[in-house]
Amino acid sequence: MSARMKAPFKARVVLALCAAVTAFSAQGDAAFDYRLQPVKIADNTWALIGSTEDITRGNGGNIVNTAFVVTLDGVVVIDSGPSRRYGEQMRAAIAQVTKQPVIRVFNTHHHPDHFLGNQAYGGVPIAALPATRAGERSDGGAFADNMYRMAGDWASGTEPQVADEDVRPGRWSAGGHEFELIALEGHTAGDLAILDRTTGTLFAGDLVFLDRAPTTPHASVPRWLATLDALSRLGAKRTLPGHGPVHEGSAGIDMTREWLRWLDQTLAQAAGSGMDMAEVMRLPLPARFERMPLARSEFERSVTHLYAGYEQRAMDSTAQQVLQQK
Ligand SMILES: [Zn+2]
């Protein structure tokens, strides 16, 4: 074959390759569509409801609820989701609802499914509690790696972007909505609850779960229980939990409290009777939780997170009793 014939052939191959790559990446983008559907939950208020599953390559980490409020001054976003892609698609979903710009993003806490979409909100102030910002800074890299491991390419290009402002707890008004920014803890060291007094809507983050077992990797059960009492006293008309359906009344607070009390009693009793971790994990779930999504796996995870602490307390109290008998 002459050199003159080779060149066009090579060019055709390159063109064909380019076309194939373009087709592949277009198909790739379509395959990573979270299909976010804003659901109106109150006046000017929309939620994006995730599934009550674990993070998988099927759901891309869309296991979380995020929300936005369209005020007269602009859009207030509550949590940005599990990946850069989710954040971008959330922004596009917001743009389908309103032409107003996004003026503020809040991160309720530092868990990856709630803040790894921050990247999509460049140029918008992102606010979180100081403990949340510290957690995003220290754990964000590991969280992003882990999200990629569990969700696969849904999370490609996701980098942790730490919130750039501290939340000042108290009243905060925006475009005709009066928000109460409430600094709490228990699910993590920094849990922001946001009550929109204008609509009576509580954005509870992961302080509240409904019909999905609570997660505890950074939890303090006693503090979380005290926080649930504080949330009850707010008397919100409706609650958007971090995971599970939006609801009127106190079903989410009640279920979360019931789970945490049962978990606390079960682990304390098990430690008191000297059970080892593997035995505790095999304990039966109460009938009321048996069918709840992720109940078994979250119970097992909670044993790994929390049981050593219960064993330590059981040993300390035994030592105390021995000392007192002397
Ligand atoms: Zn969480």
TrEMBL record:
GO terms for biological process: antibiotic catabolic process. Residues 1-25 form the signal peptide. InterPro entries: Metallo-B-lactamas, NDM-1-like, RibonucZ/Hydroxyglut_hydro, SoxH-rel_PQQ_1. Residues 63-243 form the Metallo-beta-lactamase domain. Pfam families: Lactamase_B. It comes from the Bacteria. The keyword Oxidoreductase does not apply. Keywords: Signal. Gene3D superfamilies: Ribonuclease Z/Hydroxyacylglutathione hydrolase-like. CDD domains: metallo-hydrolase-like_MBL-fold. SUPFAM superfamilies: Metallo-hydrolase/oxidoreductase (SSF56281). Belongs to the metallo-beta-lactamase superfamily. Class-B beta-lactamase family. This is Beta lactamase. It comes from Methyloversatilis universalis (strain ATCC BAA-1314 / DSM 25237 / JCM 13912 / CCUG 52030 / FAM5).
